[in-house]
Design brief:
Elements: E1 16-17, E2 22-23, H1 24-51, H2 59-81, H3 89-119, H4 123-161
Antiparallel strand pairs: 1-2
Helix pairs in contact: 1-2, 1-4, 3-4
């Protein structure tokens, strides 16, 4: 008895984001453009920092971070353009770590805010809490878009090879 292989449907609602108006690959490419721009901006800042004698001892760490960001950016672009899901794993891993750390910050700030409120109301702490929460939400959205792009590419590749068991849930 033969099984009917389900067809891959690229316009499935699970591959749409921004309230269904954009495909996940389009938004993933936009996010990678922003990530690459941020990396290049970081490189410009890195160059200015290593010129200062106060930060000379940190230049190796900053250089390592910059080179890792460049490698992740190249991997991200290659994965999106060539539709290779394995090349999206470094950015997903780094994004998951960032989400975890941002969540810890978002939880710790209210504790400091409550302690601060006991002493006096501090507007800077309130602004930090709002900023931290917004950064967490943006980072989570960023992670979700890239994760959906990962699954889109994976499901598309599996449907082309005929291995339908990989994406039937």
């Amino acid at each position: 008895m033969s099984q009917v292989q389900p067809k891959f449907y690229s316009n499935d609602p699970k591959y749409r984001c921004c309230c269904g108006c954009c495909h996940v690959m389009t938004i993933a490419k936009f996010i990678s453009f922003l990530f690459t721009g941020g990396t290049l901006f970081y490189g410009k800042e890195f160059y200015e920092v290593i010129q200062s004698p106060a930060y000379v001892r940190y230049s190796n760490i900053l250089l390592a971070c910059f080179l890792i960001a460049i490698a992740i950016s190249i991997s991200l672009w290659y994965g999106l353009i060539e539709e290779r899901e394995g090349f999206l794993l470094p950015i997903l891993f780094c994004s998951a770590i960032t989400n975890f750390l941002q969540c810890i910050i978002s939880i710790a700030l209210p504790v400091f805010m409550i302690i601060s409120m006991i002493r006096s109301l501090d507007a800077e702490l309130t602004i930090s809490l709002i900023r931290s929460s917004l950064l967490f939400m943006m980072q989570y959205w960023y992670f979700r878009v890239l994760k959906n792009a990962y699954y889109y590419i994976k499901h598309k590749r599996l449907s082309l090879t005929g291995d339908s068991t990989g994406y039937l849930r």
